[in-house]
Design a protein that fits this description.
Helix content is 47%, strand content 8%. It is mainly alpha-helical.
Length: 343
């Protein structure tokens, strides 16, 4: 009887050793395997997924298998509770440990969307709606009341979204995107306002935003922004009308068909700076960072006028007489009789 137990023990011992050896060899093969060329190039981990679910999905998609060994690897390395949710890039040749480390790093696939300087709000809305990378959740009514939806106290959305290229993970909503852009504009504007030049005729950051939007639409070449900002501020200081065409165009709305007529300059709207003194009620576009800085740090000049030369640059004048000559030269091909500015 004792001999029988002895042989049974020996058999069980060798069986356990053999099983252990086989398991070890299997694990060694698992560790050495790499992601095949045929595997999907992207893998998504949903929020709240367990390591068991992740391992099963990896096996089903032919990325890493078997699932139980990936799960075992995660437990051995104490990474089973550290994986992040999101969409991850998977490259052929990655080992199981590489894949696991990638999930723990949280380096998800990044998408990008851009807000362009000079956009008016309706253009911004159209670009967000057309963006396939963003999850679309907002209705037309939401867009009409977007400042309330993003938790802002501002009334008008015009000019309040910072122009930039934004990177974000899969699943980002249109509302989250706009909240981020709005916060970026608020932070940038307030920071720059604190460093503003002494003596500028602007009382609030919002006034700076309004004037920056006008400068943005009036600028032909970037380096002239501080000069154009100075011209408008010089006019504000002496109570002179800004007389800027982009504000008139904004006030015309859908009536604008590509050209401004004399009657348009005379038709009064809250945005007609030929009929009303001071700044417009709201920004007229999305100003760039450079336009905001130009407004808060204008060029030192006495210029009150500028006119386009036709090559993107402008001619700046201190007096109306000088400005008249510049208009005749650059806009009327030297024909002084065609000048209409005095009428």
């Amino acid at each position: 009887m004792k001999a029988a137990f002895k042989w049974l023990f020996i058999i069980l011992l060798f069986s356990a050793l053999a099983a252990g050896g086989y398991g070890y060899l299997q694990y060694e093969q698992f560790i050495k395997q790499t992601v095949p060329e045929t595997a999907p190039k992207r893998f998504e981990i949903a929020k709240g997924s367990s390591i068991r679910q992740v391992a099963r999905d990896l096996e089903q998609q032919g990325i890493v298998k078997p699932a139980w060994q990936f799960q075992l690897l995660a437990k051995i390395t104490k990474q089973d509770t550290k994986i992040k949710a999101g969409e991850f890039a998977i490259k052929p040749g990655m080992s199981a440990q590489d894949v696991l480390d990638h999930f723990v790093s949280g380096k998800t696939i990044s998408y990008s969307s851009r807000i362009i300087e000079g956009f008016v709000y309706k253009d911004l809305v159209a670009s967000v709606k057309a963006d396939e990378n963003l999850v679309q959740t907002l209705t037309d009514d939401d867009y009409a009341n977007i400042m309330q939806r993003i938790g802002s106290e501002e009334k008008s959305p015009e000019g309040w979204f910072f122009p930039d290229t934004y990177n974000y993970p899969r699943g980002t909503t249109d509302l989250e995107f706009l909240k981020r852009s709005h916060q970026a504009m608020k932070s940038f504007l307030n920071k720059e306002w604190e460093q503003r030049e002494a003596g500028i005729p602007l009382k609030t950051p919002y006034q700076a935003l309004i004037l920056a939007s006008i400068v943005e639409k009036e600028t032909g070449v970037p380096e002239e922004r501080p000069l154009i900002a100075a011209v408008f501020q010089n006019r504000l200081k002496i109570g002179m009308m800004l007389q800027t065409d982009p504000s008139v165009i904004y006030g015309m709305g859908e009536r604008f068909e590509g050209n401004i007529r004399k009657s348009d300059l005379r038709r009064d709207t809250p945005y007609n700076t030929y009929t009303r003194k001071g700044l417009t009620p709201t920004p007229i576009a999305t100003p760039s960072a450079e336009a905001i800085r130009a407004v808060l740090h204008p060029e030192a000049t006495k210029a009150l006028y500028f006119v386009a030369r036709g090559d993107g640059t402008s001619h700046f004048s201190n007096s109306y007489k000088e400005h008249r000559r510049a208009v005749v030269k650059y806009q009327l091909n030297g024909n002084a009789k065609a000048y209409q500015g005095d009428k």
